[in-house]
Write a structure and sequence with these properties.
Distance between the termini: 36 Å
Number of strands: 7
Largest sheet: 3 strands, mixed
Strand order of the largest sheet: 3-4-5
Strand content: 15-25%
Helix content: 25-40%
Number of helices: 8
Oligomer: single chain
């Protein structure tokens, strides 16, 4: 499969189908959850910050939002306060349709902020891949970390990797 370009090697023992795109369900999810923003593993996967393949779509909504989810596609909701919800929203175009997603730096801050729920291994993977990117913006990351009140722990995690 490697020889005929059906798959590509992500890392030792992990391969990805070349015709696979995680964007396929993004438009469907944004229609199911109006006002929802792709976050966490969905965003990390989109930005190639993790090798983890999400088995569900991760979507942020405001705390007071009532959402009725269908059985398919699988969606995990994160209820955020208005201030945290509004921070770092950007938009991508998938199949000609706009889809809201958190920007690169907000996604990294989410990895640090929810490190205890998701695990330190995925947090360190996301941060390490972010530090290795050429399009990173440490000023924006520092500003988001301060606004999210994780600036001290963010500094402790990021500084050894620089």
């Amino acid at each position: 499969m490697l020889n005929n370009n059906s798959v590509s090697r992500v890392k030792r023992g992990l391969y990805r189908l070349n015709d696979f795109t995680h964007d396929n369900s993004f438009v469907e999810v944004s229609n199911i959850v109006p006002g929802g923003i792709l976050c966490m593993i969905s965003a990390w996967s989109y930005y190639n910050l993790t090798t983890t393949i999400p088995h569900e779509n991760h979507v942020a909504v405001t705390q007071n939002k009532k959402v009725r989810l269908p059985n398919y596609p699988p969606i995990k909701l994160y209820y955020l306060s208005e201030g945290f919800y509004q921070l770092g929203i950007t938009q991508i175009v998938v199949d000609g349709m706009p889809v809201k997603i958190y920007d690169l730096e907000k996604s990294v801050c989410d990895a640090i902020r929810f490190r205890n729920k998701l695990g330190l291994d995925i947090t360190f993977e996301v941060v390490k891949n972010y530090v290795g990117r050429k399009d990173r913006d440490f000023n924006k990351l520092t500003n988001y970390a301060r606004l999210l009140r994780i600036d001290k722990i963010a500094q402790d995690i990021i500084m050894p990797m620089i």
